[in-house]
Amino acid sequence: MASQKKKFDLSQRRNIATILSIIPGIGQFYNRRIMKGVLLLLISSAFLIATWDYIDIGIWGLFTLGTVPREHHSIQLLIQGFISLIVLAFAIAIYAYNLMDARKDAIAIENGKPNPTLLQGIRDFYNNGFPYFMVLPGLGMLLFIVVLPLMFMVALAFTNYNQYNAPPRKLLDWVGFDNFVNLVNIDIWQDTFVNVFTWTIIWTVVATTLQIVLGLFLALLVNDKRIKFKRTIRTVFILPWAVPAFVSILIFSALFNPTFGAINRDILSQFNLMIPWLSDPFWAKIALIMIQTWLGFPFVFALFTGVLQSVPADMYEAAEIDGSTRWQKFQFITLPHILFATAPLLIMQYAQNFNNFNIIYLFNEGLPAVRGQNAGGTDILISWVYKLTFETNNYNMAAAITIIMGIIVMGFAFYQFRKTASFKEEGRY
Amino acid sequence: MAMNRKKKSKIEVAFIYVFFVFMFIIIGYPLLWTVMMSINPGSNMLVTQLIPDNPTFEHYKWLFTNENSDYVTWYKNSLGVAVANSIGSVILTSFVAYAFSRYKFIGKKYGLYMFLLLQMFPALMGMVALYIMLTTIGLTDSLVGLTIIYLGGQIPFNAWLVKGYFDTIPRELDEAAKIDGAGHLRIFWTIMLPLAKPILAVVALFNFMAPFMDFLLPRIVLTSPEKYTLALGLYNFINDQFSTNFTRFSAGAILIAVPIALVFLLLQRYLIGGLTAGATKG
Question: ipTM, 2 decimals?
């Protein structure tokens, strides 16, 4: 028996069972697991009958996007296609389970184990399947609400879906990388893209770094032994985080308003200054960075305050005996310690600001307008995408830009993967 | 020498306090200004005063009593979505997190990667597609739809957070229970959930607050004013006629911001604890 194992031998029970269950359930009948066989057969035939047409049209639609204008709705076909893919993936998983199950039972029979009773079979199924049942509701929602739109978005980037070419009046086509090529080759797109992209990077780096530096600085100061009323001070410093951001941003938008805003009217007027905070791109950018620092530093502050208390005190004592200066202590003890503990979360801060739609849109809707480009002066990539979608219906370009953003975000995520400790323990179970 | 050092230290501390006071003003000014706006009579921003001569609560009263005000409806809408989102998210994510923390199954590792990756993508990236999808299948302007989208969107981040917390609960506890004959659900219900209360409270709270704070998704999904949530309704107060309704907006905003800020200040310690535990463990 052992010598034959390597060769595929049709007289072996396990192989017969596997081959028979190409039609789901038959292999199980062969193993005399009648109930299981009936169930599998029922489920798979019901599945085929119920979804065959839907999947057939979906997959066809995914490739062709429809052939008759007005009759075929390309977008609906596209969505149906992706849903079909997801359903198909589940079907394949169940089918694979059916094959493996038949084989497993056959092996058990080969080894002379008696067939389990019905009750025992159900219990085994429950025990083995338990983690899948737990994950299934969440996974289902995730697939349809998060993954499906993302897939749909990626697909749109390779179509010609815009205001003038929209179903049901017209059919969409797959256009390959045309949208990406246009982004680089057509002047207005190229100019806008370069400007918006540059500002997005500056915005991400400057605003995030400022909020981290300010948060760190304040955390160090409050942590000083000589400072009293620590609790009160900390509470006040966390306030900007506690107030809902959309409220604060709208308030700032009013405060910075050049005509009635308090900053120009009450403060800067003392020095005979009038700064066009909203209508000049440069000053609008300065205002945005200041506001984001205000909004963002409390999180970093709270984070560092927590971590600072875990720096072992004896390290400082040892350093003092060695005669280190305060800067040296900070540089070689405090900074490495807190950065090690918080690096992934700080990276997340950069990723969040990279996509910080709320502040850009609520402050000034990405305005002021800039001549020769179709995005406002303070638009970052994500608010530009929003405008392209909801204001000018340039869905295809919006999707193409989103993909570029997605690739950048994945860069952040990749770093996160390597840093996150949870993965390291996976081997344990 | 010693005297000199003491003096230097004192000056330093004084400077730190001065800096703190400066920060207090920067933090406090916009907040105070909003409070003052809300009790200013009238609605013209040009004549509002930082400290009004005759403060009034007319704007608060207007929000609750005027027949043109939908404020109470918005509050109810937000509350409904918030409660459903809060309960639903705890159930969904604790199930997922339990499986990921305690069981071995096919696709586990890729599932974890997927969660990490998806939580980096901002909701808006999918939202544009979601909007097109919703309009295509005609499922816009529904609070149920809004709740379902919230529920699905929160999974990656929260499942990750709760899984990290479950991992810190000693495995010996559930193994002992298993020997005593406890089933999967029983262990989950009687051991894991009670021990994970702090992190579940954080998940419940943050998903409760999200509908009060988010304005973008409601803006995409909801179209009729009687379906609005608070954030969206308030945004429209000033979006339509910025300078004329700002005092009213201030009043409405304060009524959201104060309870949220209070709860937040009470619980932020747990959030920080959860974040650092999940991210840096090991």
Answer: 0.83
89-108 of B, contacting A, C-beta below 8 A: 92-93, 95-96, 98-100, 102-105, 108
A161 falls within a domain: no
Q: Which amino acid, A375?
A: A
**A49 domain residue, yes or no:** yes
List pLDDT tens digits, range A194-246: 889 999 999 999 999 999 999 999 998 988 888 888 888 888 898 888 888 88
Domain assignment of residue A106, yes or no: yes
Q: Do A188 and A152 share a domain, yes or no? A: no
Report yes or no: A357 and B216 within 8 Å, Cβ to Cβ. Answer: yes
For B103-132, the pLDDT digits (tens) are 888 888 888 888 877 877 766 677 767 877
Which residues constitute the domain of residue A123? 2-156
Which residues of chain A neighbour B35 with C-beta distances below 8 Å?
A: none
By residue count, chain A amounts to 429
Which CATH architecture fits B70-280? Orthogonal Bundle (1.10)
User: Both A226 and A330 in a single domain?
Assistant: yes
- Taking only the tens place, the pLDDT of each residue in A247-304 is 899 889 888 887 777 777 777 777 777 778 888 889 889 999 999 999 999 989 988 8
Count of structural domains, chain A:
2
Residue B104 is given by DSSP the state: -
The CATH number assigned to the domain holding A292 equals 1.10.3720.10
Alpha carbons within 13 angstroms on the beta-carbon side of residue B57 total 6
Report CB contact under 8 Å: A342, B280: yes
Q: Which of B21, B116, B132, B168 should be substituted to probe chain A, the one whose Cβ sees the most A Cβ atoms within 10 Å?
A: B132
Residue B123 is predicted with a pLDDT of: 67
Query: Chain B contacts of A142, Cβ < 8 Å?
Result: 114, 118, 152, 155-156
Which letter does DSSP use for residue A425 in this model? G
A252 shares a domain with A142:
no
Give per-residue pLDDT as tens, B193-224.
888 888 888 888 888 888 888 888 888 888 88
